[in-house]
Every structure is written in C-alpha cells, then in structure tokens.
Design goal:
The chain has four helices and ten strands. With 211 residues, it is of the alpha+beta class.
Length: 211
C-alpha cells in the first residue's frame, strides 16, 4: 500500500476525531442579562456607601474607621452650606462645609488612633512642652470626653482644633482623632459641636490583628 496514502488517511481520521470532541463539548452557559445588570447595580450601591480607611501600628494590628460618604445622612447643614467628603492619602477622611455666599467654611477630618486613652495621648504630647497655649487639655462634647489643643497661627486664616476622644464601642476601646478647622473671620461657631457629635455618634471603629 502506498505509504503517503496511509498517512493521509491517518491525518483525516485525527481531524474528524478532534472535530467530534469539539462538537460534544457543551456550549458555555450564557448568564441571563437581567441577572448581570442586577449584579452591576448591587456593586454600584455598595461602592457608593461609605468611606473606609485604616492605620497600621507596628505591623501588629490595623485600626479601621468607616464613615458615610454623604455626611448629610447623619447631619443637616444650615441653608446654603454645601457638604463634600473625600479620603486623603488613604489615611484619613475629610469633610468640607462651605457657604460661598456667606464666606464661611469649616473642615473636619477623622483619623484612626492607637488604643490609648485621651489622657495618655495628652501626656505623650505635653511632655517637655512649656508653652501653656500648646498643651492638650481636657475637652468634652456632649457625652464624649477627650483632650484638645487649639492652634491659632498668625500667618494662617484658620483656627484648628486638634482633638482626641475616648471611644468604647463594638469591641474597640481607645481614642479617635478629630481635627476641625474654621475660618478665623467666621463669628458663628454654633454648628461646630453638632458636626463633632455627628462624627462621634456615627463613626465605626474596628481593630484587626495583622496576619
């Protein structure tokens, strides 16, 4: 028998065999269009709910804080005040409260802190400081106790409140850092306490050990 003819038959046979295997494979199941769209919508809703940032301490554990992206869900601003929020440098959450017509503006930032008390934080920062105006002192907003240092620089348009509040909630016991800046020229300071209270009432704090 002609050798080339035999080789041709073998090649044709292999081709038919491969074609048969291919045709027996089940067609990939197409997911229902409505199901796909529903999943996309679900992802969008989850993505646009909260700000989440974390801070690592000595590679031993992370402290994670969560706040609403839309601050107006926990606080009602006065007329004309526009509220915006953002995450800065992946380390803290910042909200801005601005009324351009009235030329008023406040900025509030929230940052995770170590599991120390506010008094311990003050003791650390106050050590060796002789200037009375630069010391952290006891401070209270509503039912929340902590420490506060006011920074009022002559070259800056803002007065800054540097605050550490004690927090004992959902398994976390320590402090959370809140910084509020307001324009020096802004006489009305009535909403500052309301902003701080809204933050402390609604912030979620979690401590996780590093794996």
């Amino acid at each position: 028998m002609n050798t080339n003819f035999v080789k041709s038959l073998l090649v044709i046979g292999m081709g038919l065999s491969l074609a048969a295997c291919s045709s027996n494979d089940p067609e990939p199941k197409k997911e229902d269009t409505k199901v796909v769209e529903a999943k996309k919508e679900e992802k969008k809703e989850k993505k646009a709910t909260d700000f989440v940032v974390s801070k690592n301490y000595n590679k031993k554990y992370d402290i994670i804080i969560t706040m609403p992206q839309d601050f107006t869900t926990i606080y009602t601003p006065t007329d004309g005040v526009k509220v915006t929020g953002e995450i800065v440098n992946d380390s803290f959450i910042r909200y801005s409260f601005e009324n351009k017509e009235a030329d008023t503006k406040k900025i509030a930032a929230i940052e995770a802190n170590a599991d120390a008390t506010a008094d311990e934080v003050a003791e650390t920062f106050n050590k060796g400081e002789e200037d009375e105006s630069k010391l952290y002192k006891p401070y209270q907003v509503g039912n929340y106790t902590g420490v506060n240092k006011i920074s009022d620089y002559s070259y800056d348009d803002y007065v800054t409140y540097n605050m550490y509040f004690n927090l004992d909630r959902d398994g976390f016991k320590g402090t959370i850092k809140v910084v509020v800046e307001k324009l020096k020229a802004e006489a009305d300071d009535s909403d500052t306490e309301a902003i701080i209270t809204a933050i402390l009432d609604n912030v979620k704090v979690e401590k996780k050990k590093c794996e």
